[in-house]
């Protein structure tokens, strides 16, 4: 069935599969709205996506290459009727800028590389998005991500390698590459390998020989083990996102791990922040009196509203000043301000106390830190909501965009849209990601930038007994005026990087210009580049205490989260979802989604709990509707779907894609993903 | 619109659930009946094992089924090869694991696991330990698991230091778990026993049994380790001063060993021809092999406790055969043997003396160094400093206040008396629910202090008026007291233990709220009792006084009982010996 056979009418059409859009899609579909959810990209989650290493390289390529030179189709003109005008959407995404890639890991095994070079040429063709303007089945499109991965797996992932070579600036990386042959015996790492064996999934590898230096080739080869988030966020365990996941039962589609440590950078070294009761008890850095003062202050913060006398004089004054009056040592003030409240010193006391309280309330719900991280990366979360939408009948098309809106001149409402295949589809409401809005529709072009860096490193920023730590590191401004940076270090058990490496995300609100300018000072302080083997180990000693960077990416992402709806010149039934914000949690995106939902469905409940799979009856008025295995043979069905529920998120990902497929075959009524995933 | 899904209504769901329940019940009942009939017929086969497994999987708390299962397993054990037995029990263990997943606090499952583990031909204790660790990580207060783990540790001989590390880990993740602290307290004395120290010879002179020190050190920990433990536990109570587990552990660390069991006093009175013996703890004289030897001759005597209420008592009395010691010109040597404890105490009654005693004084025994051990003063002093530091930060913390009081008592009970009293006052204010407890405790300390003062003054007069006493204790220490003043306190009664004041002649207890005189029982020397302004309301309350032969003066002014019609004549009937009655 071709995509232009999409139904010609929907209640809601959503363009963009970021978190807010996906939540809206799930919420609408859940209460019976007919939802069409499309994305111009070949992957889910837009700027919230997670990529395999090779997927990320393709993504980089895509943005480096700039907008594809696609002939603007004017065919939609003829679809317009009397009294209507067209409002074109932007065909290109300009939200990402200042991309810079550095490869510090050396490549090896030249003969293999040659082989790959050959592959490169053959593989690169189908990679280019929209290369052929032909009408493709959505089914194919949605599975293309998977195809990429498959390619990467067998082919040793080729084309990205070439891509990186191009991006290496002054050949410094290639200079390192020449030193490859000698680099194997890196002495400082041997001791570490013993620790590693404990949790390493492949003990055989590490046992037989001292830890092998990780080469670029290895990273590419193991590229499928990476799931690199474009947006680095953590989930506050009592934040809106977690509450929503629980309330809506969407949480069943994903798995999570607790962030295990909160660290901070202070006086030139990385320290653990004692934030939970157990941390404070076990802390070696604090004196017993400090422990008491810290606990006392934190206990006060938990219900500070009950003790207005303690802070009301300071309510509007800076939090920093308030802390100084609380008999807290400098140590403690730093911890509270930067790592617990995570606010700037100037923030007013009331807000600082609220932030502290939020942090503390999140503690202990799932573990000793307030944060959760989704296995396989944050990009899983929008997909989970898409899956929920699909379960309730939402239709999904990737690599499918909307060219323009059809606006009724009289009412100034969007009546319909014309998709990238030229089909006119009417809709009641249209929800669109900010990135699709053209410059003409923006009254106020002011927007902020988020600076991001992604590093692959060879060891943890603060090695401990366990290799498998997930750490949040707060880095206060290195010098006055420079930004507050937070850093999330992920270990391989989060399924976001290959064993033996760590994936480090740095994020800050951009102050000066490019991400590199913002973040490089922090990166150079905390990480080093590969030590060349000629250097004496004594010299390298100091360097060996900090992790070595194997690969680094810098980019800026536009942050439109503060842009008001009134800043867009759009019909009233068109709703804009702004980009991810710079905050650590996802509250903004969830608030936004709920606000949009409330605007056009004020009577309906927002994401009510999804019923258990066995309580869903498939309404069979389609020819295949009453297929066997659903209405009959109940017990087997139920157990099957339970199996589906407990499936690994990796399966979930595929499920989501499959349900997408299934849903697009609109005549089919098979929506429940459980049994489908079993087959 | 097709392709939409419907959700079953609640009624439909309820109905389905009901049917499901019925179906399950039917299966359950059928299986149960089958099992019981099999057991009745003595069938011990695999099928029965299957059936019981089916039921226990859903309800692991049916002890009968586990019992039947054990019968079957024991039978199968006799007819199978060892390898098969191993397999059989391994299967049993994995079945049990699934039961524990359903209910990690099932008595039946844990008990059965213990039984199976003990019978396994080749037990895998490491696996059992890791099972326990998993269980405890889910719920660190699961006492079933703690119990089972103790068994596993014992059976597999896990080294003590490894177990100590285990408690380190548990305490590190959650220090509000007394199970872990307690376990620690059992391990430390094994791992770091206190080195036996020779005791200072100066103590020996005054003692009749010089070679034993007043404190035995069996459960103590060496000082180096103690200091580490103090630090650990301080981290806990500074982090959360309201958590009692850390404070209890701290009390244990500071705690003293049990006192040595001994005869603390022998008193002999020529006139009354009797001997009173005090012990370091309540004993039952009739079953502990008490022998009185007089001038080398074992005597046939009848030991009686100070009050018929007590089968165990720290003071016992016996009559000496009439005429044996009545001649004041004779000197006698008494020895009391406590054969059960292989100890004895001598006492000489010299010519011309009407009474004599031999005892260890409370000061010698350091009896009232509270519950705390006599550690090096410097250690206790620094602990007191830490606690005072915490008190500065948490002036309302009851645990801290109480600990400070105990430390002060261990260091210098008399020197810290004022501070102790003021801390008690704070305690009663911050913890009004336990104010009566604090009052009793405070009374105890005041009595101890007064005993010490009396000892230092070497007198037999005990005066403790106007001290807010709510209860009496350490009365065994007052065996020799002749005059006691308890006036202006808040006493409600003179308890049976009061009968331990065997030498008492004069009792003043004015201005209390006494309504019960049970303890004025067989006090042979008591002559003068003043009970002004108390709550004695019935003549029968005075009944115990009839057992005191020498009582002649009684002051009952301000008691309700005096309002009774014909009080004087009624009383004369009950207590004819009273010659001097004030009312």
Automatic annotation (TrEMBL), chain A:
One of its GO terms (cellular component) is cytosol. Pfam families: GDI (PF00996), RAE1_2_domI_C (PF22603). It is found in: Cytoplasm, Cytosol. It comes from the Eukaryota. Residues 175-184 have a biased composition (Acidic residues). Residues 106-213, 604-679 are annotated as: Disordered. Residues 450-581 form the RAE1/2 domain. The keyword Cytoplasm applies. Its main location: cytoplasm. Keywords: Cytoplasm, GTPase activation. The keyword Cytoplasm applies. InterPro entries: FAD/NAD-bd_sf, GDP_dissociation_inhibitor, Rab_escort, RAE1_2_domI_C. Residues 119-130 have a biased composition (Polar residues). GO terms for molecular function: GTPase activator activity. Belongs to the Rab GDI family. This is RAE1/2 domain-containing protein.
From TrEMBL, chain B:
Residues 202-215 have a biased composition (Polar residues). One of its GO terms (biological process) is prenylation. Its EC number is 2.5.1.60. Residues 195-215 are annotated as: Disordered. Keywords: Leucine-rich repeat, Phosphoprotein, Prenyltransferase, Repeat, Transferase. SUPFAM superfamilies: L domain-like (SSF52058), Protein prenylyltransferase (SSF48439), Rab geranylgeranyltransferase alpha-subunit, insert domain (SSF49594). It is an enzyme of class 2 (transferase). One of its GO terms (molecular function) is Rab geranylgeranyltransferase activity. Residues 263-362 form the Rab geranylgeranyltransferase alpha subunit insert-domain domain. It catalyses: geranylgeranyl diphosphate + L-cysteinyl-[protein] = S-geranylgeranyl-L-cysteinyl-[protein] + diphosphate. PANTHER family: GERANYLGERANYL TRANSFERASE TYPE-2 SUBUNIT ALPHA, PROTEIN FARNESYLTRANSFERASE ALPHA SUBUNIT/RAB GERANYLGERANYL TRANSFERASE ALPHA SUBUNIT. Catalyzes the transfer of a geranylgeranyl moiety from geranylgeranyl diphosphate to both cysteines of Rab proteins with the C-terminal sequence -XXCC, -XCXC and -CCXX, such as RAB1A, RAB3A, RAB5A and RAB7A. Catalyzes the transfer of a geranyl-geranyl moiety from geranyl-geranyl pyrophosphate to cysteines occuring in specific C-terminal amino acid sequences. Belongs to the protein prenyltransferase subunit alpha family. This is Geranylgeranyl transferase type-2 subunit alpha. It comes from Umbra pygmaea.
């Amino acid at each position: 069935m071709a995509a232009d056979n999409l139904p010609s009418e929907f209640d809601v059409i959503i363009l963009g599969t970021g978190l807010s859009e996906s939540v809206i899609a799930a919420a609408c579909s859940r209460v019976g709205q007919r939802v069409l959810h499309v994305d111009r990209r070949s992957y889910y989650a837009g700027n919230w996506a997670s990529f395999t290493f090779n997927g990320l390289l393709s993504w980089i390529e895509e943005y480096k290459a700039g907008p594809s030179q696609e002939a603007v189709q004017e065919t939609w003109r003829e679809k317009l009727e009397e009294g209507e005008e067209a409002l074109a959407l932007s065909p290109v995404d300009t939200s990402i800028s200042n991309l810079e890639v550095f490869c510090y890991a050396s490549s090896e095994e030249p003969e293999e590389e040659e082989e790959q070079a050959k592959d490169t040429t053959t593989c690169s063709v189908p990679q280019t998005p929209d290369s052929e303007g032909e009408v493709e089945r959505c089914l194919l499109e949605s599975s293309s991500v998977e195809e990429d991965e498959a390619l990467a797996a067998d082919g040793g992932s080729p084309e990205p390698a070439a891509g990186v070579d191009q991006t290496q600036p002054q050949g410094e990386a290639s200079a390192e590459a020449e030193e490859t042959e000698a680099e194997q015996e890196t002495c400082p790492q041997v001791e570490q390998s013993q620790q590693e064996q404990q949790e390493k999934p492949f003990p055989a590898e590490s046992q037989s020989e001292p830890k092998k230096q990780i080469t670029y080739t290895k990273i590419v080869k193991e590229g499928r083990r990476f799931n690199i988030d474009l947006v680095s966020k953590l989930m506050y365990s009592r934040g809106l996102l977690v509450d929503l996941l629980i309330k809506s039962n969407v949480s069943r589609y994903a798995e999570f791990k607790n962030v295990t440590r909160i660290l901070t950078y202070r006086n030139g070294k990385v320290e653990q922040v004692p934030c939970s009761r157990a941390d404070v008890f076990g802390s070696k850095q604090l004196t017993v009196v400090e422990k008491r003062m810290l606990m006392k202050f934190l206990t006060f913060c938990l219900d500070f509203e009950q003790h207005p006398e303690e802070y009301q004089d300071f309510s509007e004054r800076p939090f920093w000043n308030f802390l100084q009056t609380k008999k807290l040592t400098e140590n403690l003030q730093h911890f509270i301000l930067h790592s617990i409240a995570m606010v700037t010193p100037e923030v007013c006391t009331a807000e600082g106390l609220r932030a502290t309280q939020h942090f503390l309330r999140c503690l202990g719900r799932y573990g000793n830190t307030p944060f959760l991280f989704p296995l396989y990366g944050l990009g899983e979360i929008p997909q989970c909501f898409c899956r929920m939408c699909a379960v309730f009948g939402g239709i999904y098309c990737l690599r499918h965009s909307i060219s323009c809106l059809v606006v009724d001149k009289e009412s100034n409402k969007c009546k319909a849209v014309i998709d990238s295949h030229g089909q006119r589809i009417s809709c009641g409401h249209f929800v669109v990601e900010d990135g699709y809005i053209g410059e003409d529709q923006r009254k106020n072009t002011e927007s902020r930038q988020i600076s991001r860096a992604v590093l692959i490193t060879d060891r943890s920023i603060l090695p401990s007994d366990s290799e498998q730590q997930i750490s949040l590191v707060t880095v206060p401004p290195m010098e006055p005026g420079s930004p507050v940076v937070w850093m999330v270090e992920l270990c391989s058990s989060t399924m976001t990087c290959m064993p033996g490496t760590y994936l480090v995300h740095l994020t800050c609100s951009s102050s000066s210009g490019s991400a590199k300018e913002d973040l490089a000072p922090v990166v150079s302080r905390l990480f080093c580049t590969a030590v060349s083997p000629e250097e004496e180990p004594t010299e390298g000693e100091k360097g060996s205490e900090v992790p070595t960077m194997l690969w680094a990416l810098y980019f800026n992402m536009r942050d439109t989260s503060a842009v008001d709806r009134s800043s867009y010149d759009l019909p009233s039934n068109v709703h804009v979802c702004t980009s991810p914000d710079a905050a650590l949690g996802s509250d903004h995106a969830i608030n936004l989604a709920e606000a949009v939902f409330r605007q056009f469905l004020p009577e309906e409940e927002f994401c009510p709990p999804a019923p258990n799979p066995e309580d869903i009856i498939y309404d069979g008025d389609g020819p295949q509707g009453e297929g066997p295995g659903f209405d009959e043979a109940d017990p087997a069905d139920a157990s099957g779907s339970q199996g589906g529920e407990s499936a690994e998120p990796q399966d979930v990902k595929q499920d989501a894609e499959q349900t997408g497929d299934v849903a697009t075959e609109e005549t089919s009524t098979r929506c429940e993903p459980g049994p489908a995933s079993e087959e | 619109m097709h392709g939409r899904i419907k959700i079953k209504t609640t009624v439909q769901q309820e109905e389905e659930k009901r049917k499901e329940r019925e179906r399950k019940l039917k299966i359950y009942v059928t299986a149960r009946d089958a099992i019981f009939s099999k057991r009745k017929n003595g069938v011990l086969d695999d099928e029965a094992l299957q059936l019981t497994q089916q039921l226990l999987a859903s309800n692991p708390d049916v002890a009968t089924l586990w019992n039947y299962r054990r019968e079957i397993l024991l039978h199968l054990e006799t007819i199978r090869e060892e390898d098969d037995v191993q397999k059989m029990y391994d299967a049993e263990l994995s079945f049990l694991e699934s039961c524990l997943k359903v209910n990690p606090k099932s008595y039946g499952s844990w008990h059965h696991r213990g039984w199976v583990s003990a019978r396994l031909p080749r037990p895998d204790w490491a696996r059992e330990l890791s099972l326990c660790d998993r269980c405890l990580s889910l719920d660190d207060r699961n006492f079933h698991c703690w119990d089972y783990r103790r068994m596993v540790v014992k059976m597999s001989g896990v080294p003590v230091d490894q177990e100590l590390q285990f408690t380190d880990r548990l305490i590190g993740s959650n220090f509000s778990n007394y199970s872990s602290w307690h376990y620690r307290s059992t391990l430390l004395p094994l791992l770091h026993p206190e080195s036996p120290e020779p005791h200072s010879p100066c103590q020996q002179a005054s003692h009749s049994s010089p070679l034993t020190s007043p404190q035995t050190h069996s459960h103590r920990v060496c000082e180096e380790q103690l200091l580490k433990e103090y630090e650990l536990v301080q981290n806990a109570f500074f982090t959360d001063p309201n958590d009692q587990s850390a404070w209890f552990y701290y009390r244990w660390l500071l705690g003293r060993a049990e006192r040595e069991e001994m005869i603390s006093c022998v008193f002999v009175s020529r006139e009354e021809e009797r001997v009173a013996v005090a012990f370091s703890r309540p004993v039952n004289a009739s079953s502990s092999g008490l022998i009185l030897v007089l001038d080398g001759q074992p005597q046939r005597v009848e030991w009686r406790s100070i009050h018929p209420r007590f089968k165990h008592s720290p003071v016992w009395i016996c009559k000496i055969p009439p005429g044996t010691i009545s001649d004041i010109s004779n000197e006698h040597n008494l020895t009391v043997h406590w054969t059960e404890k292989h100890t004895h105490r001598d006492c000489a009654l010299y010519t011309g003396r009407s009474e004599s005693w031999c005892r260890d004084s409370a000061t010698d025994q350091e009896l009232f160094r509270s519950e705390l051990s006599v550690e090096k003063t410097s250690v206790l002093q620094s602990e007191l400093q830490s606690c005072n530091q915490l008190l500065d930060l948490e002036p309302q913390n009851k645990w801290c206040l109480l600990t400070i009081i105990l430390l002060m008592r261990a260091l210098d009970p008399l020197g810290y008396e004022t501070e102790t009293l003021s801390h008690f006052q704070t305690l009663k204010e911050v913890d009004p629910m336990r104010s009566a407890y604090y009052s009793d405790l405070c009374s105890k300390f005041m009595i101890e202090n007064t005993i010490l003062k009396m000892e230092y003054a070497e007198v037999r007069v005990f005066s403790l008026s106007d001290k807010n006493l709510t209860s009496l204790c350490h009365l065994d220490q007052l065996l020799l007291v002749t005059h006691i003043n308890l006036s202006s306190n808040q006493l409600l009664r003179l308890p049976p233990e009061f009968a331990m004041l065997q030498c008492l002649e004069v009792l003043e207890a004015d201005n209390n709220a006494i309504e019960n005189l049970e303890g004025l029982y067989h006090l042979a020397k008591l002559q003068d009792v003043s009970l002004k302004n108390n709550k004695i309301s019935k003549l029968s309350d005075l009944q115990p006084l009839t057992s005191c032969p020498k009582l002649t003066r009684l002051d009952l002014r301000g008691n309700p009982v005096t309002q009774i019609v014909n009080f004087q004549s009624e009383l004369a009937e009950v207590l004819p010996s009273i010659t001097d009655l004030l009312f």
